Predict the structure of Adenine phosphoribosyltransferase.
Amino acid sequence: MSLEKESEDPRLTAISACFTVHQDFPKKGVSFRNILPVLRDPKLFKLLNDVSVERIHAKFPGKIDLVAGLEARGFLFGPSLADRLGCGFVPIRKPGKLPGKLVSVDYEKEYGKDVLEVEEDAIKPGSRVLLVDDVLATGGSLAAAAELVRKCGGTLVGSFVVVEMAFLNGRKKAPDALEALFIYT
């Protein structure tokens, strides 16, 4: 597994230097790339947010009304991006975590099947929504989240992930407009 385009921006090199790799996690044969150490270093986390916002503005021009973060690690990156973009944040969760009336979607993921939900009134019709997650693997969760946005009447601006595992071909399922800071091939 190698990283594409890191050398084009020394800021990305600095950020990725803190990532760790764990073999056979969460199951045998999987090489898990842990990006969470970036959260431990306030300078690196600020740098990650700076670069992310630059890339979001370049890829997705126009107003963004909401950032919708996918459970669970989209919750770590989404709120800070929403703050910097001057918009609201909406959590997209697994079943049984949200109160009230919900919109839900079943989907297939890398390790099995799952469901994603959002509060029915969280995404107003016509709202321009950017999906945020930590990693794009097979694309199932981003595709399901995009379906949730549409079911609520929102307009999907696109999707932003910190890392794309390109060798898993997640772009085939993920929404068309996608930006990834790091792409592993």
User: Anything to note?
Assistant: The chain has one domain: 3-184.
